[in-house]
Design a protein that fits this description.
The relative contact order is 0.12. It contains 20 helices and 9 strands. The strands form 4 sheets. It has a 3-stranded antiparallel beta sheet. It has a two-stranded parallel ribbon with strand order 1-2. A two-stranded antiparallel ribbon has the order 3-5. It is mostly helical and 506 residues long. Helices cover 54% and strands 5% of the residues. Strand 8 and strand 9 form a beta hairpin.
Length: 506
Amino acid sequence: MIIDGGPVTPEELVAVARGDDDVRVESSVAEKMRPALEVVERAVDGDRIVYGITTGFGALASTRIDRSQAEELQVNLLRSHAAGVGNPLPDDVVRGMMALRARTLASGHSGVRPLVVEKILELLENGILPVVPELGSVGASGDLAPFAHLALPLIGEGEVRIGDQIVPSAQALAMRGITPLSLGPKEGLSLLNGTEGMTTMGCLGLVGGLTLVRAADVACAMTVESLYGSERPFREEIHRLRPHPGQTASAGRIKGVLADSEIGASHIDDFEHAVQDAYSLRCAPQVHGAVLDTLGHARNVLEIELGSVVDNPIVLSETDEVISGGNFHGQPLAFILDFMTIAITELGSISERRTDRILDPERSNGLPPFLSPHAGTHSGYMLTQYTAAAIVAENRVLSHPASVESIPTSGSQEDHVSMGWGAGRKLLTVLKHTIRVIAIEMLCAAQGIEYRELRPSPRTARFVELIRSEVPPLEGDRPPGVDIEAISSLIESGAFDRILADEELL
């Protein structure tokens, strides 16, 4: 990922967040940052009243601070705002926040030294990840508490993770030969104000969500085969008449997976076989496609955010001004984080209905009850549907929108907040949950296909083979949780995407 002061893409950020890519700063960044830095220096030298530079913060904005207290002000800001509690954030969120904070500061409107950007990336390059508690942000003045915990290690305070160990940051910096940062005017404040935490969670949700929708299309095609469903609802002519982009893409993918199936061909013209399949099968493109289109809207918002200046106050070097605005407010992100959560919850909801149909002997077109080879003495995959149902129920609770739950902070100076941080945390939880729901459908569909005497499509066969590389067929009762987690790992790893790409269905 290249930091040059301009935008980055969600995929570039996610590659850094997952530890697959590094970050490099263009040599031109220092010159780009210089004019704003000079504005801040003039403001301090001229004893101007400038929020966060010569004043306190939030409700203390009217309190004057003289130059001799400038560094103390910035250090105390990081200490006092590190009020987060709870479990540490996952490493991918922390890496993404570090990379994006460096990108924002490098855009040339924060008034900080290039050294600050370099120090953030020095920690990232050395695998020193700040320990950031997950609770404490309302998504308004940026993610203040999380960013305070993220920033403290730059000055040798707080805790960090190196590998599997959590150690004091001063110890970690000494181990790597890194000199702690001494903060200049505005630099503490610029390390706190911003939406990069919400943005990182949004990008992880977007990229993970797209992978999951494609996996859901594969799961649906497998279920159609296992239930002797019809491929007619996926014909292009139908979707051309209602041309939502996501619907068209989902229908095309499902139809592509089903092509040349002996199972499908055996009843393609048998209208007595099933006049209509259940909604969870024949309406899958309309539901999966709506999820894709919601993710598409989220991408548009995230791409704008990934090229934006979200600091406060913002330095306008062309007019020699430092202006306090509201670009740190997370409302655009809070909305899409909630929208994505709702959409992914629905992806799991329709998948669970297909799983239930596979397992129910009254509705499965001749499959054994609960796919058990010894129904009665063995329960088969009965309880996998319980698990899917429990997850879907919890996802529905988590889909209550956080973005409508504003609660005032800072003596009501910050009297409307976005709650986008909570929306992002819910999104990542629901995404993890729904991966398991789709994995359960795949587990059951693969077993159902193997009960059929006819062959599935060549593409479906490849997906069954992939599943069987990790999960053996069910020959007798065994704990299915291990199998569910194994398929979930295949989905997260992109293994299904690789086959789709190979088959030109991605």
